[in-house]
Design brief:
mainly alpha, two-stranded antiparallel ribbon, disordered C terminus
Length: 696
Amino acid sequence: MAMQMGDAEGMVKVAEWQQTYYSSDSGIQSGATTVRTDDDGGQFGKQYTITTTVTADPTELESQYTMTRAQRVRAAMFPETVAEGTAILSTQTDPAHMTNVQKLAEPSQLLKAAIVHLINYQDDAELATRAVPELTKLLNDDDQMVVNKAALIVNQLTRKEASRRALMQSPQMVAAVVRAMQNTSDMETARATASILHNLSHQREGLLAIFKSGGIPALVRMLSSPMESVLFYAITTLHNLLLHQEGAKMAVRLADGLQRMVPLLKKSNPKFLAITTDCLQLLSYGNQESKLIILANSGPEGLVHIMRNYTYEKLLWTTSRVLKVLSVCPSNKPAIVDAGGMQALGKHLNGSSQRLMQNCLWTLRNLSDAATKQEGLDSLLIDLVGLLSSDDMHMLTCATGVLSNLTCNNARNKSLVVQGNGVEALIHAILRASEKEDVVEPAVCALRHLTSRHPDAELAQNAVRQHYGIPAIVKLLAQPYYWPIIKAAVGLVRNLALCPANQGPLRDAGAIQRLVNLLLKAHQDAQKHGSATQQTYQDGVRMEEIVEGCTGALHILARDPNNAAEIASMETIPLFVQLLYSPVDNVKRVAAGVLCELALDKRSAEQIDAEGASAPLMELLHSSNEGIATYAAAVLFRISEDKTADYRKRVSVELTHSLFKHDPAAWDMAHKTAQMSGYAADEVDGYGYGGYPEDA
């Protein structure tokens, strides 16, 4: 009984409000003040007849025209004022040419319609302004039916621009709508209030009013609504706020918006998902905490699922943007890769959408250093090799970067790329983009990986020569190329030299001279500090690495007698002997290795001995590094061949106390060790950790 009385009272309140404010018809309900044209957009409702009178007397005709001029103008501008069936004299003599009055008729109608719209606009604004106080009171009523009816009326008002602007200028009204949305348990009221905020969010003033009224936490709560329309209104309103309202991002984060949005990725409506993913991108860009929240709520899995299963281009694009932002986060990287992100992104490298392809490529590049052990990337690798023929520098940068990382310490991927003509494609990319460091460095690194430690390494080493890559690679062994490129090129030359057929071409291209020059410069730079604890860096590369790389490359090149003679002729032996004192084991090993090869020549062996190499070599015999000790033993054997019996005995005693115990196989071991340690090491480039933008 009490409920029936409450309902009746609510209906009375609404009826009273309608009688008070709708006693003069605004046109919102009845359309009484709206001027409508016929469906064909032609004349208004009144009909009249245009007649043409032919009179023999020109004077009489002119008199008729003068007398009916006002009537003709009135008929053209205000056709509704002419009585139906009235005959209007026409001055048109040629049907192909309009009279001046006829030409003015259409603009006149448009002008009149605009004036009518302005009058109606003013009426709508005035009505809304008068209604705001009472509607606000009704929205705050305890009776849910009253609130529902009031919300429906306000929703109708917000669909017209004039009344919408009047409503958004009332903070009390917007706050009342937000409260009603928060407190209601009625789905229709929730839908109406969410629609009101959605309509208000199309203007900046409305966004500010929603923001100031605490609308963001209320809208975030609506993201858990079971009603699809409420979800749509809530997510689109939040999207507008994130795009255009300062402070909205932080407010959404504080309201746990991300925790509510990520589960929405399980929805199936592509357009809804496109808005949701764009919200995730706006919230996570440049904010590490947001990225971790997305990860904690299984966001990477949901995003990868979308990339794998949907075809709507806008959704794929917005999703790829989120993945690109997450791909620079060390915590999200492995999660995306483990969810199959590399394969899912690779599906879109051959589509028609350029923006989607570029986003996928940047994301793949950022992820690739975490995917070196990932399986099932065969088609991706082939597609990347195909992209190396592109003239777009962004595509080349990404494709070479991904190939560089995916071929690092992965023998299967290396073989796939080599068999897919990847060596030739990489060489051509280097030739075409020789001035672009972002392309050249990863391309050279990829070639360095392809020419070592896999069954097709020798095939790759030969392919570089066969496709005229050696001169281009050797050219990189000097500045003005920056040090990371030089370091990669040194390693590649070292690998190429392992193929006997490449020894001559490398020498002819000037590799030995350039390596020696680099070695001297890097050694001088490293010596400037004068302390073993300090290291010299250039562009992030340690000069000790360049010293080691150049010496190692010269070691492999020295296996060719002609190359060994050229190396010795450049006064390098004193430097190699000095490097035996290096605090770095790898430098000692390669220095002893190159001396081992040079000592095969009697004159070079004498020069090595004359430079005082015996003392450090004797020390190195006791090194815990087998490679160092082996090379040292081999060099001492060669030096002692022409020495006195006493000297040879002393060397023999040292060898006896060393780990070799005068092993006669030391010579063979030296060669085996050289063969095993001759390759330059593969290195991963962490493209996602700085240096590359989240949203390029």
